[in-house]
Structures are given as C-alpha cells and as structure tokens.
Amino acid sequence: MRYAEMNWPDIEALDRDTLLLLTVSPMEEHGPHLPVGTDLFVAQAVEERIMVSLEGEHPMVALPPLPLGTCRMAADFPGSLSLPWKVVRDVVGHTLESLAGQGFTRAMLLTFHMDLHHVKALHAAMARIRRSGLTACEPLSAYYFRGILLPPVDGETEVHADLRETSLALVLFPELVHGHEHLTPVHIHMDGPSALFKTMKEMGAERGYVGDPSRASREYGQRCLEQVTQVCVQAARALLAGEEIPRLPSRIRLLLRLI
Predict the structure, then answer these.
(1) Is 201 left (phi over 0), alpha (psi -120 to 50) or beta?
(2) 15-69 pLDDT, tens per residue?
(3) Count: domains in the chain
(4) Phi-psi category of residue 24: left, alpha or beta, with phi > 0 → left and psi -120 to 50 → alpha
(5) Domain that holds residue 9
(6) What predicted TM-score, i.e. pTM, was given to this entire model?
(7) I need a surface site. Which of 4, 143, 177, 246 has the fewest CB within 10 A?
(8) DSSP reduced 3-state for 69
(9) Does residue 90 sit within a domain?
(10) Is position 193 within any domain?
(11) CA–CA separation, 33 and 136 (whole Å)
(12) 121 Cβ neighbours under 8 A, 6+ residues apart
C-alpha cells in the first residue's frame, strides 16, 4: 500500500504496528553518465522489493519519498541540491513525529546516499523520536560502512557513480545511463581527514565520479540489488520482532559527533 493513495479512514484502520517505509535521498550529481536522482531511484527500487519480499508476512505502507538530503561533497556540481544537515534532520524528524502522533510504532528509512552529514541527519532524526513510541532504523548505511552492503569487487576506490552504482543503474533504469563505457577510471582516496572538509572536485574527481564505471555490468548490478534487498528484509524482520537492528560502526558514530 502507498500512503499517498489512501484516504484517512484507510489510514485510521491500519494496524499501528504496520511497517512504514520512508525513502530519503537527495538530487546529486552522479558523473556525466548517471541521473541526479540515482540515489533516490535505487532506494525506491529497494523499497519496492522489500514490500514484495514481506508481502503477506506483515502489513507495510510506503510513505511518499523525500527527495532531499545533504550532499556536501558534490555541492559544487550543477544538479546537486544540498540542504544543511540540520534541515534534513528536522524534516525527517518532524515527519516521524507526526506518524508517531498517529500511533504508529515502526518505521524504516531507506537511503542510498552515504555522505556522512546526510547519515548524521537521518540518525539524529531517529534519535529524536525514540521517546515517542516509534522505533526507526536505517539499515543501508550500517551495512555500507561495515563494507558488507554490496558484493566485493577488485580495487578499493569504487566510491561514487562507480562500478557499483552504474551496474545498479543498468538493471533499474538503463534508459538513463549514457556513455559509461567510455569513461576512464578515477581513483582517489576519500577515507582520510581531508574527505571531511573537501569536495570531490577539490580532491580530483573533476567529472563527478570516483571509480571505474566502464566496468559496470547488469550481472553485477543484479547481484548488488539482491544483496541489498536481502539485508534490508533481514533488518525489517528484526525491527518487527523487537530484536537488535543494525547499528553504525563505532568509528562512524564517533565521526558523526565530530562533524
């Protein structure tokens, strides 16, 4: 079911333990070959697959997606719409508070955008509503920063609009992928202190991608999609059962306090 298509008596009749799914990802440049909506499109596709996987197992409702976020590292490219992280925190937090006020108790946030400021905003929003009676989780960043969200590939510098994201795009929206096979690899390290203060362009990614999108394939993209869906379904079941839900690694939690 989709929240936007329901009337208020439909919503009033829902079980309050219905799992609410909320996709949150910004418009952000993804190189010259992928659309600015890449992160949103991927997260929405995962949302749809979660609903199919859990159909008949538990009631679920997909909330309207929020096409917003913080993309500081790509903010100096045309097409990127970056909001301050506190704005994102407040929009997402107030949305969850409104749902908690209606008595709902479970929500899962879905994002395929891993800018640390964006991740901070989502997790701050979830922390804000803990006392409201609504428990929320955001599993994708927890698995991403543990290095287990996607199937492994050769090389450690596939970061943005790269082999992985381009492969997913070839599966999910191939009509929007243009010229990836002609791009040359861009390999820069983005995991040091400079990554907290510089944009990708300032670090050398002048065309807005880091990695080797020319190696992308539908076969690898399908494997990515299946693995991402699987970890989200597992997280949803844990959330619904009141079991431990995925957490960010301690080093990432520390970084989020510092930025």
Answers:
(1) alpha
(2) 999 999 999 999 999 999 999 999 999 999 999 999 999 999 999 999 999 999 9
(3) 1
(4) beta
(5) 3-150+227-258
(6) 0.95
(7) 4
(8) coil
(9) yes
(10) no
(11) 34
(12) 69, 70, 85, 86, 87, 88, 89, 92
